């Protein structure tokens, strides 16, 4: 939701055109007003409102850099204008610059603390940052200021749907749709609830309604993804796969400028391949020293990785069910090593030659981040779950040589299918998943790197097989618990309640909340659509023993 007006305006060069803009804004026809504003700006009618409207048009077209430039120009004309600051926060969020977005939005709220739309945007930023409780608080504050703010109701409905609270989700969605029957987020919340209830027909109807409203951007990607899931629930396989393909194509159309590989931004697969080449060239590595005690460090340190959709969320919630185990769900705990130990193209310095002071500082920064995200972990076992952290195994080996590494293994065909049909948070990895062949080659690249690290890095590794976990739960859990160094507890069996309490928000949330969900062999239902990439995955299917 965007407020495009400004209290500061100069005398218009073309009063008639200005009047058209104001009438369009009064009728909530933002797109029409922005088109008129583009004409006015070209004629030299430069003021904050015109710049803000044209910036909105750039933003809608995915030109975030262009929108940002116009908004900064508007802010120079109207310093401290809370509406312009809020618009800048929106663009920064869409660029993925979440810390910067929140800082600007806080400045906007300092100037106008009772502006509901800015609280709403702040909630969007926290939601994108996976800070769910903060996001919810912002949406509730926005709603307290404006009880008729449909997007706030819709986001709260969506949060309830993702948390498995169907009753609250339906009630909040109904309130949002009573105000705005076209609200895509509310319709998606209802579809999410219906899909979890295995009502594909109702979910399909909600998504057909949403798509008829002409939604664009992320909303369209999500609606098409949910449509595919709804059709799949009805066993309309070809139609389901076609809907997922449309979703991924829409995702690419939205994020081409931001995520597509280019000279200064290699593909995520190339990034991984560059790291793999360095690991292989370096050969077997001696064990690093741990650098001594670090304030805030856990007693036991575990990295849980593998690949998205491989079962890491299930294992994380199993472990989080035990007393004295703290698990963190897919957070960037190693962010301080970016640009220091690995460049944008994947090149790394000789890690074994780094000076002790740098290593100590990075270890301290890691545990400071962990404390900020997970609370105090001293005296406990800490599980850092990020399925793509195989990319950072060389860094983990250098900084945390005593860490235990759990690697999830699942049938590669099920993994790639699942990644292709999921609406991931935008990232260069998500770009890889949005093309079926690239998703398979990306999987191959990360498995190549993971295996190279297992052969050359002096870390303790343990494989956790998804197929064994869902068919022989206790024995499998006992094995990896013993590897970590924690005793078996009956609490491990209650991971579904743990997931409900913690509010899991990965793509696996629905399955984990249900209990032990057996998701093996789903690829067979879509074997025809997957046929082009099966040869890429075949070596790993055989190597990991999933050929049968």
CATH architecture of the largest domain: 3-Layer(aba) Sandwich
Task: Supply the helix-strand structural class.
Answer: mainly alpha
Helix content: 55-70%
Shape: globular
Say which CATH homologous superfamily of the largest domain is assigned: P-loop containing nucleotide triphosphate hydrolases
Specify the CATH class of the largest domain: Alpha Beta
Poorly predicted sequence stretches spanning 5 or more consecutive residues: none
The CATH topology of the largest domain is Rossmann fold
Characterization of the model:
The protein is mainly alpha-helical and 548 residues long. It has three domains: 1-146, Tetratricopeptide repeat domain (Serine Threonine Protein Phosphatase 5, Tetratricopeptide repeat, Alpha Horseshoe); 148-152 and 159-260, Tetratricopeptide repeat domain (Serine Threonine Protein Phosphatase 5, Tetratricopeptide repeat, Alpha Horseshoe), CATH 1.25.40; 268-543, Rossmann fold (3-Layer(aba) Sandwich). The protein has 27 helices and five strands. The chain has helices at residues 15-26, 30-42, 48-60, 64-77, 82-94, 98-111, 116-128, 132-145, 150-162, 166-179, 184-196, 200-212, 217-233, 237-259, 268-282, 312-320, 356-374, 393-399, 412-420, 428-433, 436-456, 466-471, 473-484, 495-502, 509-514, 527-530, 534-543, and strands at 300-305, 325-329, 381-385, 404-409, 460-465. The longest helix is centred in the middle third of the chain and has 23 residues, at 237-259. The N and C termini lie far apart (51 Å). The mean pLDDT is 91.
């Amino acid at each position: 939701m965007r407020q495009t007006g400004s209290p500061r305006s100069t005398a218009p060069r073309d009063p008639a055109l200005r009047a058209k803009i104001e009438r369009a804004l009064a009728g909530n026809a933002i797109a029409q007003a922005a088109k008129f504003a583009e004409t006015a700006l070209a004629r030299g009618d430069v003021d904050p409102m015109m710049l803000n409207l044209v910036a909105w048009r750039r933003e809608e077209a995915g030109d975030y850099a262009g929108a940002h430039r116009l908004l900064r120009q508007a802010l120079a004309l109207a310093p401290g204008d809370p509406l312009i600051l809020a618009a800048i926060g929106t663009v920064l969020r869409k660029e993925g610059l979440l810390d910067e977005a929140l800082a600007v939005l806080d400045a906007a709220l300092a100037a106008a603390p009772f502006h509901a739309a800015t609280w709403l945007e702040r909630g969007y930023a926290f939601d994108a940052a996976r800070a769910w409780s903060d996001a919810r608080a912002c949406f509730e504050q926005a709603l307290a200021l404006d009880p008729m703010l449909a997007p706030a109701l819709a986001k709260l409905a969506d949060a309830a749907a993702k948390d498995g609270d169907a009753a609250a989700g339906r009630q909040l969605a109904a309130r949002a749709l009573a105000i705005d029957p076209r609200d895509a987020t509310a319709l998606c919340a209802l579809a999410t609830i219906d899909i979890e209830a295995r009502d594909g027909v109702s979910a399909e109807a909600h998504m057909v309604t949403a798509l008829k409203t002409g939604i664009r951007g992320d909303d369209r990607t999500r609606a098409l993804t949910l449509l595919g899931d709804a059709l799949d629930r009805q066993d309309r396989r070809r139609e389901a796969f076609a809907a997922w393909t449309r979703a991924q194509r829409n995702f690419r159309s939205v994020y081409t400028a931001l995520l597509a590989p280019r000279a200064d931004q290699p593909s995520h697969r190339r990034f991984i391949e560059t790291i793999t080449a360095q690991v292989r060239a370096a050969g077997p590595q001696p064990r690093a020293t741990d650098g001594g005690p670090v304030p805030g460090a856990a007693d036991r340190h575990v990295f849980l990785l593998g690949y998205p959709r491989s079962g890491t969320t299930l294992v994380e919630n199993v472990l989080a069910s035990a007393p004295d185990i703290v698990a963190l769900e897919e957070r960037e705990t190693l962010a301080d090593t970016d640009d220091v130990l690995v460049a944008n193209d994947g090149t790394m310095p000789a890690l074994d030659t780094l000076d002790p002071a740098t290593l100590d500082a990075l270890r301290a920064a890691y545990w400071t981040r962990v404390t900020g995200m997970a609370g105090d972990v001293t005296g406990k076992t800490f599980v850092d779950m990020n399925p793509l952290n195989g990319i950072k195994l060389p860094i983990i080996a250098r900084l945390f040589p005593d860490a235990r590494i759990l690697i999830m293994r699942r049938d590669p065909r099920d993994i790639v299918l699942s990644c292709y049909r999921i609406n991931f948070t935008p990232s260069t990895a998500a770009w890889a998943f949005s093309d079926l062949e690239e998703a398979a080659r990306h999987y191959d690249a990360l498995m190549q790197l993971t295996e190279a690290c297992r052969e050359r890095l002096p870390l303790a590794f343990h494989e956790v097989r998804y197929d064994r976990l869902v068919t022989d739960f206790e024995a499998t859990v006992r094995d990896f618990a013993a590897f970590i160094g924690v005793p078996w507890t009956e609490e491990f069996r209650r991971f579904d309640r743990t997931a409900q309490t913690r509010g899991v928000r990965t793509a696996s949330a629905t399955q984990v909340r249900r209990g032990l969900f057996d998701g093996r062999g789903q690829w067979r239902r879509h074997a025809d659509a997957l046929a082009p990439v099966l040869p890429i995955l075949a070596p790993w299917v055989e190597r990991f023993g999933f050929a049968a």
